[in-house]
Amino acid sequence: MLNKEAIFKMSEKTVKIEFLNLIKKFDSKRYHTCKKCDNCKNCNNCDDCIYCCSCDNYYDCKDCNGCYGCKTCNYCDDCYICNNCNYCDDCIDCKDCMHCDVCYGCKNCMHCYSCCGLKHKKYCILNIQFTKKEYFQFLKKNIFNF
Q1: pLDDT for residue 65
Q2: pTM for the structure as a whole
Q3: What share of the chain is helix, strand, coil (3-state, %, to 5)?
């Protein structure tokens, strides 16, 4: 049992170990109804996820943040009811998409930005097809500060 006297006698390494144990105890109270999740924070009703944060109703996802109702997604942020998406941001009801941002109802798309209802498309902005070069020029100029 820890007390002031025991803490004063600890080495720096022992304090770090105790701190990690304290974090585990604290975080274990935040998992709510999650099952088979590893290294997740502030998640609820998730199953078989790893390294997710603030997700709800998630299944088999990895390294996602602030998502709800998604399945088999990886490296997504703020997505809602997406399935098998990778590296997506702010997407809703998308399936099998990769590197998409602010999309709604897209299927099998890659590198799309602010699109709705597209299927099997690449390098689209507002549902307009661009070349790969034009697409990344737009992002560099308007979205990202490279």
Answers
A1: 92
A2: 0.69
A3: 25, 25, 50
User: Could you list the residue range(s) of the whole structural domain that residue 64 is in?
Assistant: 31-81
- CA 136, distance to chain mean position in Å, is 23
- The strand pair at 128-129 and 122-125 is best described as antiparallel
- Overall number of domains in the chain: 2
* DSSP bridge pairs for 125: 113, 128
42-65 b/e (C-beta count within 10 Å ≥ 16 → b): ebbbbeebebbebbbbbbbbbbbb
Q: How far is CA 23 from the centre of its chain?
A: 21
Largest Cα separation within the chain, whole Å, is 68
Asked if the structure places residue 25 within a domain, the reply is no
Residues 110, 68 share a domain: no
- pLDDT at residue 85, as a whole number: 93
Token pair listed for 40: 């997740």
Q: Is there a contact between 90 and 80 (Cβ–Cβ < 8 Å)?
A: no
